[in-house]
Design a protein that fits this description.
Elements (H helix, E strand, L loop, with lengths): L3 E7 L3 H12 L4 E4 L13 H4 L3 H7 L1 H4 L1 H10 L3 E3 L3 E5 L4 E6 L2 E12 L3 E3 L12 E3 H11 L7 E6 L1 H13 L4 E5 L6 H5 L2 H4 L4 H17 L3 E3 L3 E6 L6 E6 L2 E6 L2 E6 L1 E3 L2 H6 L3 E4 L4 E4 L12 E3 L9 H18 L5 H19 L2 H7 L4 H4 L6 E3 L4 E2 H9 L5 H8 L12 H12 L3 H4 L8
Parallel strand pairs: 1-2, 1-6, 2-3, 6-19, 8-15, 9-10, 9-15, 10-11
Antiparallel strand pairs: 4-5, 5-6, 7-16, 12-13, 13-14, 17-18, 20-21
Helix pairs in contact: 1-5, 1-12, 3-7, 7-10, 12-13, 16-18
């Protein structure tokens, strides 16, 4: 089916699936595009297939299984679904260029919903480019996609709920040799406690109990956990063989076969920035966020961002943001009345707010260390072009004032990842060295290939 679509949804995670189903059920001609072979996004990856595996379902847990209801709702709708399809260029006027099976197609929509989700924050520490170093998210994807579990001596290093969740999943999957290095600063707890009264409201208390339950499970299984870890360094020549780090008791070195890093997640910016959506720096989440109105519309009329791409909120909350986007679009298409909009908007917003009560507490408790945000001179920042932090500081001293100038000087951000992995760190280093705010420093100018 070709022609003008009422709405095109980019991404089939919880936000995109909910937006697509709501739009289609409301009578909007809707197209969903996702580069993966099936719906679910990263959080519910391969959920349709894995629900048939009792063993894997037990490992991944009930929260993961909840994604099956979202996929079923979207598939039951009239939305057209195109998987294994890349949206390689998107324009502010609603034009979407796709590629699938070697064929390029130009599509047009009255409204766009960008539901591209989040990415793991880059963790540029010494040795992070060695073979044998992955991210926690990458290992979890292997578990969901192929049922693969890590083997040998596994070290999980970083902070945030995902580290503890995946550690528990590893134990359930049969991993026996596991060490956890928690890099959260102990001093984060005091400012985080100011947000505790709000965190126990809504669904926040459930999230807190879930986290405490994961920690208790690791303790019962005898998992060695080092807390307050700093100065992490991955050692090895041909591949990672050990990790050295500091704790309150001194410097420790442990041998390993595989290490996974994680310092939280940040919105995936590439699509929104390529269109020209305005962004702002968020001090609490330590990342750039797109500027959105209450219905998740960007600075460009007709372009909406749902889910973690608009700020980290979590899987269930992301679904409610997808509903808000869809309702705004349906109203613009005259598919629903003002009364219906306000009624359904109130329900979605109330549900969303109930899940957001925990966010300020988590954002402050797991705020990443400066050594991750602004790494030392000898640490590689741009993996594609092998550019170290010291080289970026050197060009700043020569007068470079922003990431785009740094790209011209050093080629950082010009490799295959197009700045996804180095962009946040380059902006942070330039801002730190110049004394500018992150907003004044800015970010890479993203262009389609």
């Amino acid at each position: 089916m070709n022609g003008l679509w009422d709405a095109i949804v980019i991404g089939a995670g919880p936000a995109g699936m909910t937006a697509a189903a709501t739009l289609s059920e409301g009578g909007a001609r809707t197209l969903v595009i996702d580069e993966q072979p099936a719906p679910g996004g990263q959080i519910y990856r391969a959920v349709e297939r894995n629900t048939d595996s009792a063993r894997l379902s037990a490992v991944l847990g009930s929260d993961y299984a909840d994604g099956a209801a979202l996929t079923a709702r979207m598939r039951a709708s009239a939305a057209e679904l195109r998987f294994n399809t890349s949206a390689w260029r998107i324009d502010a006027d609603g034009t979407v260029w796709t590629k699938a099976d070697g064929k390029v197609e130009q599509l047009q929509a009255k409204a766009l919903v960008i539901a591209s989700g989040a990415m793991e924050r880059p963790v540029p520490v010494p040795g992070w480019t060695l073979p044998g170093v992955l991210t926690v998210g990458a290992l979890q994807i292997m578990l969901k996609d192929a049922g693969l579990r890590p083997s040998g001596r596994l070290v999980l290093a970083g902070c945030g709920p995902l580290v503890y969740l995946f550690a528990a999943q590893c134990l359930e999957a049969g991993v026996s040799d596991l060490v956890l290095l928690d890099t959260a600063k102990r001093t984060n707890l005091i400012p985080a406690l100011r947000h505790l009264p709000k965190a126990v409201c809504g669904h926040g208390l459930g999230y807190l109990w879930k986290g405490l339950g994961l920690m208790a499970a690791l303790h019962r299984r005898g998992v060695k956990i080092y807390r307050g870890v700093s100065k992490l360094r991955i050692e090895g020549a041909e591949r990672a063989v050990a990790a050295s780090f500091r704790t309150r008791t001194g410097t420790i070195r442990i041998d390993l076969d595989l290490v996974a890093l994680h310092e939280g997640v940040i919105p995936s910016q590439q699509i929104a920035r390529s269109i020209g959506c305005a962004h702002r720096w968020d001090e609490e989440q330590q990342c750039f966020l797109p500027i959105l109105d209450p219905m998740r519309e960007t600075s460009i009329p007709g372009v909406f961002i749902a889910g973690d791409g608009g700020g980290i909120v979590g899987a269930t909350a992301s679904a409610h943001t997808g509903a808000l986007c869809a309702l705004a679009i349906l109203k613009g298409l005259d598919k629903i009345s003002d009364t219906e909009l306000e009624s359904r908007k109130a329900v979605a917003q109330q549900a969303l707010d109930a899940h957001l009560t925990i966010r300020p507490f988590l954002d402050r408790l797991y705020r990443p260390r400066n050594e991750v945000l602004v790494p030392a001179d000898d640490v590689v920042v741009c993996r594609c072009e092998a550019i170290r932090a010291g080289a970026i500081r050197d060009i700043v001293r020569r007068g470079c004032l922003g990431p785009n100038q740094a790209k011209a000087f050093l080629r950082c951000g010009m490799g295959p990842c197009q700045g996804r992995m180095c962009g946040p760190t380059v902006s942070a280093i330039v801002a730190h060295e110049t004394g500018q705010t992150p907003d004044a420093t800015g970010y890479y100018r993203i262009r389609p290939p």
